[in-house]
Amino acid sequence: MTQVWINGQQDATLDPMERAFAYGDGVFATMAVDSHGQLRFAECYWQRLQDGCARLGFAWQPSDSLLALVHDLAAKHPLHCLKLQLSRGVGGRGYAPPTSVQITEVVSVSPLPAHYRQWQAQGISLATSAVKLARQPLLAGFKHCNRLEQVLIKQHALPQGYDDWLVLDTAQNVVESSMANLVLLVEQQQQLKALVPSHAYAGIAGVMRQQLLLALLADGISIEMRDITMADLLQAKHFLLCNSLFGTVDVCRVDNHPFARWQGTARLQQLLVPH
Asked: Cβ contacts of residue 199 below 8 Å, gap of 6+?
């Protein structure tokens, strides 16, 4: 069962004129709580939320009272998902934002999806979605509240035996899955190299993506960030997905194309998976 706090008050009501509700005018972060009741990579999430707000044209930073609430909820709900949504606040009719911004903070807590443990242990399969992401550099990279493209992707039933959708943009570049960032590992001169979508025009550059790339660099694996084609994907030896809730999982198949599971994934899971 999901529990909700609005501006620090549990089960408070949300004004229907909230701009995040009316226009998607806000940002959010989804964070995992580990078994010790600690938020993983919390400072990275605060920074990304601040950056996202700045991209939309308003300033925010976590108050002492919000931080106290979030950390108290985390301590009371180990191995749960904590979500923080920020709305530009209540605005009048019309798209133009109010000159005075009163940000609304919505915190919710819910259990981690149980099937993620199976994904971590066995890997997953992806089917290519017919829904393409629009290329919009002003909105690319950060997690704003308008997720209608993902809603359209998820409206379609997955083929039997597949776990999530692989998503391309309108230029036919490989961007992400419906819920996670991706990293391809290609073999060059008997060494692995990581290929990563840039997210300059579409997709979300998640906090777990950042942590995964740092872990790969620490292992001596070089990283190339650029547009990724389906041809690049089909030439990869290993395929990893990552997000804040399941950490890192192997992709074993895209459509009918198989990928080898990577021996380094288990160690990455120890670093990145909430436990």
From this structure: 140, 141, 175, 205
